[in-house]
Amino acid sequence: MADNILVMKNITKEFPGVKALNNVNLEVQRGEIHALVGENGAGKSTLMNVLSGTYPFGSYSGQIIYDGKECQFKTVRDSEKIGIVIIHQELALIPELSIGENMFLGNERRGKFGIDWDETYAQAEKHMKQVGLKDRATTLIKDIGTGKQQLVEIAKALSKNVKLLILDEPTSSLNEEDSRMLLNLLISFKKEGMTSIIISHKLSEIAYVADKITVLRDGATIETIDNAGHDIDEDRIIRGMVGRELTDRFPDRERRSSGETVMEVKDWCVRHPVYTEKEVVNHVSFHVNKGEIVGFSGLQGAGRTELARSIFGHSYGTGVTGQLIINGKEVHLKNERAAIEAGLAYVTEDRKENGLVLIDTIAVNNTMARLEKVCDKHGVIDIDKENHIAEEYKEKLETKTPTVQQHVGNLSGGNQQKVLLAKWMFADPEILILDEPTRGIDVGAKYEIYCIMNDLIAQGKSVIMISSEMPELLGMCDRIYVMNEGRLVGEFAAAEATQEKIMATILQSDKKDESKGVLQA
Amino acid sequence: MKDIVKNQPETLAGRPKFNANALLKKYTMVFALIVVFVFFTALTGGKMLYPQNISNLLLQNAYVLVMACGMLLCILTGGNVDLSVGSTLCLVGAIAAQIMAKTSANAIVVILICLAISAAIGVWQGFWIGNMHIPPFICTLAGMFLFRGLGRVVLDSKTVSIANKTFLNIFTSYITVPGLDTGTLHLSALIVGIVAAVLLLVNTVANRAKKAKKGYTMSSAAGTFARVIVIDALILFYSWKLANYKGIPVMLLWVLGILFLFTFITSKTAFGRYFYAVGGNEKATKLSGIDTRKVYFAAYCSMSILAGFSGLLVAARIGSVNGDTGMSYEMDAIGSCFIGGASAYGGSGTVPGIVVGAILLGVINQGMSIYGLDNNWQYVVKGAVLLIAVIFDVVSNHKTGKA
Fold it and tell me: For testing the chain A interface, which of B281, B398, B400 should be mutated: the one with the most A CBs within 10 Å?
């Protein structure tokens, strides 16, 4: 028999009204990287929360056997004590505290009187070295990037003597470079005998890193696929996840650019709102034609979101200069309201933080950007009409929810994204800026979002799509702009663009920067 | 408890099955109010039910109800409170009393001047909080000292009594219709009660007909009508008690007017919706093209106007104003909101909810006074009730699976 470090048997977990897990089985061998895949709502995170004790023993049925012993975790601490550590998708770090303080939060190194800070920082730097972090342990979390923060989380896990590391969507907010580094780190830990379970939507990463892949669908185990050769076909995984073959990952669309320019940006500059000497967007000029999907590619921090938000009624940055021309007329959009009225919509990359009011209902969120459309001339809301509109969008976008009175916070990521799109479609814009429209949602929902985008184009709207996933830009866009370090460094027609070309453009512009930096110094 | 009166179709499973647990949770504070009322009625040997006491319950708590409406707006924006309202109440009451003591100004003019001053105070607070982003707690704490001090300056540290009959009548008289209200029974109160009850019923039926015609989804008929019948019964009971005392107090009309206005604003208008949106997610609200500064401004501005108006109500009811008038009244308004289910994090709470909260506090106060409990112990009980209400709210929300 294989040496299983973990066996989960017949796990069933119910929430009021929903069976989240139904007799799920999972076997993880010692020293392997085991991937857990499935659509949103398939039960991956729930299963891991059962394992880590976030859902205490008794709130689920079934057995957890770890290291040959049956375990009954009442709290997360119980599972951590024997070496199971989970790193959640939303990082649990406190920005105002240092790396060292964060690593030993709740697990402080005690001296004779209070905390032994020398020991804390020495230990912290030891573990940071293991994950390849060269910063000082006294650096504040808010001063390092998301990529490094993810590494701090892993170092924190190491400090707890982790034997089984669970990572929930570790790369969802990382750029390609940082993601690759993180995955290689996992592989090197594997060589030292650590076991990992990784949840991810990025199938290419799974194929690269995982030894075995367990597929969950609708709260049940579908299959476990062997990937010892790391050469699995992505379509093979997708087939298991959605239960059908996805022949095309991107829906077809007739690409016909009218050549009529709806929006033009000239010489756009934006400065950082706090560090005002820093140019976040640097002399960017581009245009969007009617009926086009225009992509913006680039690494994290390239300034794409900042560009989009500064165009959308100066909602980011200070000292915004440059010309914005919509339908041949120069406009000055001094706030978000003016931008909406000029026919712009900005669909944020961060739906929970900047997009939706989670404690309000779908109906309320749906009308928020253009509430006046369901009001009479005195500003009195026609609640019935509002509900009716929400129902219509629910049908049209196939949002999965019993009623539009559901609180948005209770929906899965893909469905939240649909509500967010519905909100901005209701505002009836001409140009939609979609910032990472498919971040953190599953393959099936992504396809549906792409279809919605094509529908918008068919209705004569134009779309600007910011995305860190190059395949989706290549699959969806008519033209792709490439940004790096706040500047526009390339433009490709979709037909001639490839991932390699885009990456090369970014890297070459980096080199130019370096040489320039040397000259200036 | 956000949905105390908002009619929400059964969510989640979507089945309109009768669910005692859900009902209990939705109307927790209503049931608590009933229990407390019955308890004090028993404790005081039925004295709570005397027409005079029922009538006074409202008059004594008029200022709480009025100020709770404004406080709700402040709390909705993100759990912020306005600490200065008790002082504002004192300052405005003091100005009213002094004008009437020193001059022979017309009562209407005095009221208008006072409301204008309240609005000016509101603009002052709203400007700092909304436009200059001064934290509300600090800004209103400063206001609490400022306006209390100014109030005492205006009063010259004396108690100033009000002799202007018109002014007193505008707030404290009872409606008497010649011919109807001559006997021991004030029929006008009863008639108004019956008319209101019938109107509510007719309105509900008409609303459902309209919805059915347009093909909108509706909540269950049984639930809707059960609620209407309960409310109608309360209206009839209340008007019967009023008819047995002195009839309809004018102050009731003022309070009802404000309650209806704020219920309407918060549940039916775009303006009101923005308060919920800002408290729910300020960044998302801003990106939706809503000027969040104006929302904060509006919340604190209307709060001060209501506090000033309460100053007039209190001054008229007591008949005089001194430097301690309105002391710690802000706590009554804040307490009512939280007992009535407003979220301490903002973004949820309803006017009907806070009315229940205010009446619950009022019943406890009155019950303890009638029973003759020591004043100091009354504070202890009020504090405990506030804590229990919030604990209950938090715990029951946790059980639904929402963290």
Answer: B281
**Looking at the DSSP assignment, which residues form a beta bridge with residue B349?**
none
Residue B98 scores a pLDDT above 70: yes
Locus of tokens 């029973």: B371
Distance from CA of A300 to the nearest CA of B (A): 21
Rounded to a whole number, what is the distance in Å from the CA of A337 to chain B's nearest CA? Answer: 4
A92 interfaces chain B, CB cutoff of 8 Å: no
Residues of chain B contacting residue A335, judged by C-beta atoms under 8 Å apart: 289, 291
Three-state SS for A477-506 is: CCEEEEEECCEEEEEEEHHHCCHHHHHHHH
For residue B79, what pLDDT is reported?
A: 86
Residue in A closest to B287 by C-alpha: A336
A387 close to B (CB below 8 A): yes
Q: What is the DSSP letter of A312?
A: T
Residue range(s) occupied by CATH 3.40.50.300 in chain A? 1-83+163-247, 258-343+429-521
Q: What is the pLDDT of residue A394?
A: 93
Structure tokens at B141: 């704490």
The pair of structure tokens assigned to A368 is 């928020």
The secondary element (H helix, E strand) that includes residue A509 is helix A499-520
Q: Are B344 and B71 in contact (CB under 8 A)?
A: no
Quote the tokens at residue A120: 């804390």
Residue A76 in contact with partner chain B when CB distance is under 8 A:
no
Which of A297, A250, A256 is CA-nearest to residue A492? A297
DSSP string spanning B203-251? HHHHHHHHHHHHT-----HHHHHHHHHHHHHHHHHHHHHHHHTT--BHH
Instruction: Break chain B into its structural domains and give their ranges.
Output: 28-173+253-399, 175-248
How confident is residue A254, by pLDDT bands cut at 50, 70 and 90? confident
Architecture of domain B28-173+253-399: Orthogonal Bundle (1.10)
> Any CB–CB contact under 8 A between B131 and chain A?
no
Measured in angstroms, the CA of B268 and the nearest CA of chain A are apart by: 5
User: Per-residue DSSP letters for A68-89?
Assistant: TEE---SSHHHHHHTTEEEE-S
Q: What pLDDT digit, counting tens, does each position of B315-336 carry?
A: 999 999 999 999 989 999 999 9
Q: Tell me, what amino acid is at A105?
A: L
State residue A420 phi and psi, 5-degree precision. -65, -45
pLDDT tens digits, one per residue of A176-194:
788 888 999 999 999 988 9
Chain B CB contacts of A409 under 8 Å are: 402
- Centroid of chain to Cα A207: 19
Classify B302 as helix, strand or coil: helix
Could you tell me where the DSSP H helices lie in B77-134? Answer: 85-102, 107-126
Q: Given phi > 0 = left and psi -120 to 50 = alpha, else beta, which region is B282?
A: alpha
Q: A511 falls in which pLDDT band (50, 70, 90)?
A: low
Q: Does A519 touch chain B (CB under 8 A)?
A: no
Query: In the CATH scheme, what architecture does the domain A1-83+163-247 have?
Result: 3-Layer(aba) Sandwich (3.40)
Fold of A258-343+429-521: Rossmann fold (3.40.50)
Maximum separation of any 2 CA atoms in chain A, in Å: 75
Beta carbons of A405 and B286 less than 8 Å apart? no
Measure in Å the smallest separation between the Cα of B327 and chain A Cα atoms.
35
Note whether B276 contacts A360, CB cutoff 8 Å.
yes
Please state which of the ranges A14-23, A102-111, B78-87, B114-123 shows the lowest mean pLDDT: A14-23
Stated pTM of the model:
0.79
* Cβ within 8 Å, pair B281-A356: yes
Band the pLDDT of B12: cuts 50, 70, 90: very low
In tens, the pLDDT along A124-162 reads 999 999 888 888 889 898 888 878 888 899 999 988 889
